[in-house]
Amino acid sequence: MAEGAARFGVSVEEFVAHLGEKIYDVYLNNKTYWSNVPQRVWEFTMGGYQAMKKWLSYREGKLLGRAITADEAYYFRDMARRIAALRITQAQLDINYTAVEAATYVWPSSAPKVEQAAAPDAASAS
Predict the structure, then answer these.
(1) N or C: less crowded end of the chain, CB within 10 Å?
(2) Domain range annotation of the chain
(3) For residues 8 and 15, is the Cβ–Cβ distance under 8 A?
(4) Concatenated DSSP letters for 71-123?
(5) Helix (H) or strand (E) holding 35
């Protein structure tokens, strides 16, 4: 863990806080599994779905009618790495986004301005 934390320039404590205290071995079947998947990577959700679990559910042999390919296995590994990197760098990404959003040029509207006529006074209408 110390090596991974050092790569991202964070302490081991921050590393654990971002990725969770547990690690999982994720099994696709009796032959294929991925070891040491961090808890918060495995539990990462997108659109209400647990992303990695959902991706794997579409790779089951019964559904595809074939075994998982080596490229698909590598893709799962790489997806775990990308999610871990997002988890670890999320605070800095949020800071960067806020800074860019604050410095964004606001384009003037190209649509002509329409002035609304004042509504007639209820007293003068009677």
Answers:
(1) C
(2) 2-103
(3) yes
(4) HHHHHHHHHHHHHHHHHHHHHHHHHHHHHHHHT---PPP-SPP-PPPPPPPHH
(5) strand 33-38
Closest Cα partner for 40 from 18, 55, 56, 25? 18
The residues near 18 (Cβ < 8 Å, ≥ 6 apart) are 10, 40, 87, 88, 90
DSSP character string of 45-78: EETTEEHHHHHHHTT-HHHHSSPPPHHHHHHHHH
Task: Provide the residue type at 71 as one letter.
Answer: D
CB distance 39 to 20 below 8 Å: yes
Give the three-class secondary structure for 33: strand
